Amino acid sequence: MKVVIAPDSFKDSLSAHDIAQAISLAWQQVFPDAEIIQCPMADGGEGSIVAVLEVCSGQWREQMVQGPLGEPVLAKWGWLDAKKIAIIEMAQASGIQLLQPSQRDACHSSTYGTGQLILAALDAGAKEIILTIGGSATNDAGTGLLNALGAKFLDADHQILPAGGLALQNLAEINLDQFDPRIKQTQFLLAADVTNPLCGPNGASHIFGPQKGASPHQVLELDQALAHFADVTAQSLGVDQRNEAGAGAAGGLGFAAKTFLKAEFRSGVEVIAELNQLAAKIQGADWVITGEGKFDEQTLNGKTPFGVAKIAQAANIPVIVIAGTLGQNYQALYEHGITAAFSLTSGPISLEDACHNAAELIRARTTDIARLIQSSMLRKE
Question: Is the pLDDT at 228 greater than 90, yes or no?
C-alpha cells in the first residue's frame, strides 16, 4: 500500500508538517508495511514557505524590514539555492498579524517591507521570485513595494507622497528613473486565489478594507485614491489592468505586480504542489490524505484540499480529508475528487481543547479510518 499525506496546517494549532507526521504515525500502526510519503502543503497563505522548504530542502533567510506602519520587523523568506528561487510571504513583512486590531490602518499601512524582501532576494541572485500574498494589512495598491524597488510617487509640487493608499489621491507623477533594472531580468510569480479587481464594489478597498481598519467613509476615499493611481499609471505606461482578475489582491498589490513587475498569477495551491512535486509523488498511490482546519464549501475557492483533490482525481486516486471541523455544504467537494471527509472531534469540545489536543485527535481519527480500510481489505481476501 502506498499513501501520500498532503495536508495544510491547522491554523492556531499544528503546522502541515506536524499534521502529516501525526497521520503517518497512526497509519503505520495499522499498516506497518505501507509506503508513506509525507508532502506538507499550503495554498499560498501563511505557512507556504514552511511547506516548501521542508519538502525541497530549502533555506531560511532573514531580513530586517519595515512593517506595515514603518516599525522594524525581522521577516523570514525562503531560498531554493539549486534553482535560484526566492519564496516571499507578504505576510512576513506586511501582514495583518503584525498589528493589533486597534492598530490596523488601511489608509496609511504600506507594503514597503515586502519590497525590501524582494530587494534581498535580488541581491541573493534570484532568477525567480514567488510571492504569496495572503493576509495583508495594506491597501496601498503595492506602491510601498514599488517605492522600495526605486519607484517614486510624486504630487503636483514634485514632492514624494507619504506612505499608504489614501495619499494616492494626490498622485501627479510616477518616476521610474531609479526603478531597479534587475526587475526586467527576473520572473515574478504571484500565488493568489483572490480574483477581485482593483476598484469598485468588488475591489480591494470595498471588500477587504474594513477588516484592515477602514471606516465606510475611508473605504470610499481609498477606492477613489486607487482608481486615481490606476488613471495615472495608464497615462504613464499606456496600460490599464485595474479590471484584471486579481488586481485587487492584497490591497491592490496584485495591480502593481501585474503592471510593474509583469507577474504571472497562479493558484497558490498549484504553485506549492508544483514546487513539492505532488503530482509525481502520488503516482501509483492507493490513497491520498489531505486536510485543513475547517473543511466547507469555501474550500472550493482554491484551498489546499481542493487543489490536492484535483491532482489526485486526474490520477484516479481516492482522497480522504481529515479536518478540524466539517462546515456548511462540505459535501459539495465530493463532486471534485474528495472520496470522504472526517472531523477530528466525536463529541462536544471547546476550540481551545481541540487546538491543544489536535495531534492526539488526528492520530485517533486516522487510526479509525485505517482500521475501516483494513477491515474492507480483509473481507475481500
Answer: yes
